[in-house]
Amino acid sequence: MSDVARPLEGQPAGMALRSTLWDWLTTVDHKRIGLLYVGTAFWFFLVGGLLAMAMRAELTEPGLQFMDAGRYNELFSMHGTIMLLLFATPMAVGFGNYLVPIQVGAPDMAFPRLNALSYWLFLFGGLTVLLGFLTAGGAANNGWTAYAPLSQESPGAGMDLWIAGLLLTGVSAIAGAINFIVTILASRAPGMTMVRVPLFVWGVLTMALMMLIAFPTLTAALSALAIDRILGGNFFDVSQGGNPVFYQHLFWFFGHPEVYIVILPFFGVLSEIIPVFSGKPLFGYRSMVLAFLLIAALSMSVWAHHMFTTGAVNLPFFSAASFLIAIPTGIKVFNWIATMWHGHLRFTTPMLFSVGTIYLFVVGGITGIMVASPPLDFGFQDTYFVVAHLHNVLITGTVTAMFAGFYFWFPKATGRMLSERLGKLNFWAWIIGFSFMVLPWYQLGAEGMPRRIADYGAATGWEPLNVVATVGASLVALGTLPFLAAVVLALRQPPDAPPDPWGGGNSLEWVTTSPPPEHNFRWLPPIRSERPAYDLRVATRAAGGQAPEGERRDG
Ligand code: HEM
Ligand SMILES: [Cu+2]
């Protein structure tokens, strides 16, 4: 099986298409599964984005123009669910699937068939969630958080499909996490010790550890909700001795870690890109690893900062623990900047997206400290300030970092470079559009505009800022088109990228061909540091062009 399937010569086109399709449907190759994950997650991103644009259209001016309040409830619930669980999480898993085995020098994931199962569970789970739009009562409409008792009592099959679909994607996530952990701990090439694996691998490992703890809790919460809804249970029903705050604990014990689950691999992406375009090794490898572990550990103990106003949680503890996360996050930002310091900076598209991500993430982090402070949070609770904060960290942590990763590894996965010119258009449209969208949201929140409303009175004076936000959101939406155009244009070119198209790659994927062969390597260089591709270049130059003896993998 070749990696990029082409019609076989002499075979009728229909048969070739059928066998290509069959290859993809039955594949257990981690690279193909990674691409399936990335492609599907990106499709969900476009769907979630369309729902977002419909909401922005409705909020531009006072009065209801396009939909009633009920439909708006469906839109924000499905948008939040799609973006976090069907886009961001599987996108991170997709990058991990493609890159982790190559970066640790393994031929595939530890359990290739389980890997394929995870993908198909994710796809059908996601489609099950979307099916809600086709039911008479419409899609799930209780927010992405689905708080009991509202979610317990709300009628309609859309909510049941939402629960069923998320149970499937939950199983997918748990199986995927196990696969990553075993691959990283047990399938590394000789010489690839844990303090030599690329930081992206550490990002995926900490993501997987958190998934393994957090997703079963979500699964438990959803199962309890389904039992209450369908079988007449009373986990969350006060009149029967149940407790709705218990639902919030279960949900946020998953929900807070979830935001780091999606962000840590993308922190890994930045840590791979910045050294290459700074012409320097990453500053402070071990402190970066420590920061990953600290973020993972701390963020398992802050879930109740989403519950400050319930009156049911210890404010000083959860507030202080939330503040502490700023320390390892600060270490990361410091190290990225130190890596760039005095480097030979090359502002390619992946580098621009990386620097933009850091800048915007710092802004989001600062407003995070504000909402982690209970006296401020009591004021910001349920206002647009929260919407602004969450998009500030999530869009940068997942979307702009994802674009950085796309431009960086697209040549590796396809053998073709993406247009730098279109990439820069993509970058500036996103950075400028994003700012015009999110900064007004902060101000609207400070002025008291509530979240999750389809309409507001003209007398509030909120219209001008909402117009600006909608213009910003439109720029963001349009800014995605250059990326799509770049992909289409690139795929029409011949796949002729060399193994290290950027020049200066550090990790093992830059040693093998673009795209890599089945099982990734015909030959592996000796691994003596966290930069085997760099070591190989140095050793080859020293030996007058003769590559050092490594490990043959083609026997
Ligand atoms: C790409 C441009 C995006 C736009 C224009 C956008 C817009 C919106 C809007 C208008 C709302 C509804 C706010 C409300 O009425 O309360 C919303 C909610 C939300 N968005 Fe986005 N969004 C975008 C991207 C994302 C991304 C990438 C993520 C996550 C990775 C995300 C996660 C959420 C969540 C979790 C909610 C809250 C849903 C709820 O209240 O249950 N959004 N977004
Ligand atoms: Cu949180």
List its traits.
binds copper (II) ion; about 550 residues; globular; two-stranded antiparallel sheet; 2 strands; about 0% strand; binds protoporphyrin IX containing FE; 18 helices; disordered N terminus; mainly alpha
Write the layout of secondary structure elements.
Elements: H1 13-25, H2 30-59, H3 69-103, H4 112-131, H5 150-153, H6 157-186, H7 199-230, H8 244-278, H9 285-299, H10 315-324, H11 326-340, H12 349-371, H13 374-380, H14 384-414, H15 420-446, H16 463-479, H17 481-491, E1 523-524, H18 532-542, E2 551-552
Antiparallel strand pairs: 1-2
Helix pairs in contact: 2-3, 2-4, 2-16, 3-4, 3-6, 3-8, 3-14, 4-6, 6-7, 7-8, 7-9, 8-9, 8-11, 8-12, 8-14, 9-11, 12-14, 12-15, 14-15, 15-16, 15-17
Bound molecules: protoporphyrin IX containing FE and copper (II) ion (CU).
| C-alpha Rg (nearest Å) | 24 Å
- Percent helix, as a range, is 55-70%
Terminal-residue CA separation = 17 Å
Q: What summary fits the major beta sheet? A: 2 strands, antiparallel
Notes on the structure:
This protein is 66% helix and 1% strand. It is an all-alpha fold and 555 residues long. Strands 1-2 form a two-stranded antiparallel sheet. It is globular, with a radius of gyration of 24 Å. 50% of the residues are buried. Residues 1-8 have low confidence and may be disordered. Bound molecules: protoporphyrin IX containing FE and copper (II) ion. The site of copper (II) ion has 4 residues, from loops.
Q: What would you say about this model in short?
A:
The chain is mostly helical. The chain is 66% helix and 1% strand.
